[in-house]
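haha ok so turns out i had the wrong file open the whole time. this is the CORRECT one, sorry everyone. sequence first:
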Amino acid sequence: MLTVFASGISDLPARIKAEQEIAAIPKAPEPFASEIYLNPAKGTKLNIERIIDCTWALGFYKDARGEQATQKKVFEAFSRLLNSDLSNFAGALSEGRSRANNDCSNELAIFEAMLNRQKKINGFPI
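then structure:
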């Protein structure tokens, strides 16, 4: 009986170490079910991709280490939030630029609409 007990103790340090390693593995955050859906109206998806891309380029998003989040990670997060597949953002943005008017008015329209909305909120003339 004592030999069974002694053999169990002899591998105890290895078992403790294995359990500590398992416990130290960071757990991925649980995916959440968002109740927000991207409006399916024509042009909305491309416009939200433009907004996300612009805010990413301005450094709005940080990762868990406090460093700028990658563009891909930002779009993945917004995909989950908006229940919309934004994984082809690079292709969509590139195609949008190639179809842009000479003055880029179609690309800038969403930002002008946002500016006008903010002016209205602040009580400025539009």
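The CA atoms of residues 38 and 82 lie 5 Å apart.
again sry for the mixup
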